[in-house]
Design brief:
24% helix; alpha/beta; 2 domains; FAD/NAD(P)-binding domain; 8 helices; 281 residues; 5-stranded parallel β-sheet
């Protein structure tokens, strides 16, 4: 990226964004580094959210990619709970929802992807969950208790991990999968059969070849009945459409149109996969 004293702004304080900021310092970048994150939490690991964290095991510090004091000690301006609304490529500024404008010379988009909501009737009912963020996991684990009935839509890795965690906490679990076997998009048939057998032996009921068309139940506002069914939607493995979380569709399209070096046609703008591949250095 040329002059290592230039201002770098990273949009997205997840695993990729946090790692980029750390590696910039590790490899001698001397210029200002600003890391912008929409969540209120410093960069953390997501895989434990469906396993140890969901079961109430481990400490918050164990989730963090790096200790809380790392960013200040390494002159990384970590800004949390701030949302980017637009990128002004002419002025080379990032616009925040607060109205602030953050100047950059090099801009790295490391926003990751998220699952679009499952658009079926009843999705707004109380007791429906998705799992991507720490806040999602904290909400979900409040209902994982002995005797609770948990219906998980999607028998991918995350769905099965949540099923195992829920059973470990004493919940009754049913997994609903639209395909003819578990892990249909991510594992071989023998491996899928192995996991299906293990989960069945653990008491998980698995329903295959079943597409969910709607949720039905009481609309609650925090006062749900005792025998409510809780629905967890597996965002990664239920064939939901995945979309890049760039600030605007225009910016997303701009990042796709990269030059030969992996950089955007607008100099100084990089996507997360460019960083991973080391392009544009």
């Amino acid at each position: 990226m040329g002059d290592n004293s230039a201002q770098v702004v990273i949009v997205g304080a997840g695993h990729a964004g946090g790692s980029v900021a750390a590696f910039l310092r590790q490899y001698g970048w001397q210029g200002p580094v600003t890391l912008l994150g929409a969540e209120p939490t410093p960069p953390y690991q997501r895989p434990p959210l469906s396993k140890a964290w969901l079961k109430g095991e481990g400490e918050f510090a164990d989730l963090l990619l790096r200790p809380a004091g790392f960013y200040q000690a390494n002159r990384i301006d970590l800004r949390l709970s701030c949302r980017v609304t637009a990128i002004d490529r002419s002025a080379r500024t990032v616009n925040l929802a607060s109205g602030e404008h953050v100047a950059y010379e090099h801009l790295i988009l490391a926003t990751g992807c998220h699952a679009r909501a499952l658009r079926i009737p009843g999705r707004e009912l109380a007791g429906t969950f998705e799992l991507r963020t720490l806040a999602d996991a904290d909400r979900l684990r409040t209902v994982l208790r002995p005797g609770a009935l948990i219906a998980i839509i999607g028998a991918g890795y995350i769905g099965l991990e949540v099923a195992a965690s829920a059973r470990a906490l004493g919940a009754e679990v049913v997994v609903i999968e639209r395909e003819s076997r578990v892990l249909p998009r991510v594992a071989s048939v023998p491996l899928g059969e192995f996991f299906q057998r293990r989960h069945t032996e653990a008491g998980v009921r698995i329903i295959l070849n079943a597409a969910v068309e709607a949720f039905e139940g009481p609309v609650g506002h925090g006062n749900e009945p005792e025998n409510v069914s809780w629905f967890f939607v597996d965002p990664d493995d239920y064939r939901l459409e995945i979309e890049a979380r760039y600030p605007t569709q225009q910016q997303a399209a701009a990042v796709v149109a990269r030059g030969k070096e992996g950089r955007n046609a607008h100099m100084g703008l990089y996507g997360g996969d460019d960083v991973k591949k080391g392009n544009g250095r």
